[in-house]
Amino acid sequence: MSDLRTIGLGLLFTLLTFFQLAIWRLLETETFLFIQILVITFVNYLFTLWIRPKNSMRIQVNLFGAVLVAFVLVTFTTVNVDRSRSFTTLKWVHELQLSGPVSVDEIENAKRLTARDVTAIEQRIEEQVQFGTLNGKGDGFVLSAFGEIILSIANGLSVVCNLKGYQRM
After folding, report:
1. 144-156, pLDDT tens digit by residue?
2. Fewer CB near the last or first residue (10 Å), C or N of the chain?
């Protein structure tokens, strides 16, 4: 039961951390995203130590675990959305699929990619097909229903947390 409590607290801390990060990113985006998350998480942990009942090691361990869950989830999602070629690839396919399935050549021409970039995008497309976010259709690819959901979450996260890297792509 203690583990479930820690995970539940972790999810609450995750929402709190996302909220705090959104406010910070609204006010300032020059500080590296990872540093912002690290500072927020550290401050949250110090706050939990300050408000926790004294002489309760079990609660301290649960709070540390909860804050750690929040750190991992917020870091994983925001940094991946902001910096990942996989999310960029999904975004590009979504933008270009309005006229039908999108080929790698169409992405290369539309985004003026180098040969190295094309190789990386081809790898990401293969991974996304295996993951189920892209479907092969004819000579190109389209987002699956699952891919649309993932991209909607990424778009929302990029707006809420003001993720400049993702927005520039």
Report:
1. 999 999 999 999 9
2. N
Domain covering 85-168, topology: Arc Repressor Mutant, subunit A (1.10.10)
The pLDDT tens digits of the residues spanning 15-62 come to 999 999 999 999 998 999 999 999 999 998 888 877 766 655 555 667
Distance CA 22, CA 33 (A): 11
The pair of three-digit structure tokens given for residue 47, joined into one six-digit string:
């706050």
* Strands 140-143, 134-137: pairing kind: antiparallel
> Closest by alpha carbon to 13, among 37, 41, 38, 35?
41
Q: How many residues does the chain have?
A: 169
Contact 93, 141 (CB under 8 A): yes
Domain boundaries, the chain: 2-83, 85-168
- What is d(CA 104, CA 118) in angstroms, rounded to the nearest whole number? 7
Record the tokens describing residue 29, joined without a space: 């985006």
In the chain, the N- to C-terminal Cα span, in Å, equals: 44
Amino acid at 156: G
* Residue 142 DSSP one-character state: E
pTM of the predicted structure, to 2 decimals? 0.78
2 within 8 A of 21, measured Cβ to Cβ: no
Distance, in Å, from the CA atom of 44 to the CA atom of 47, rounded to the nearest integer, reads 5
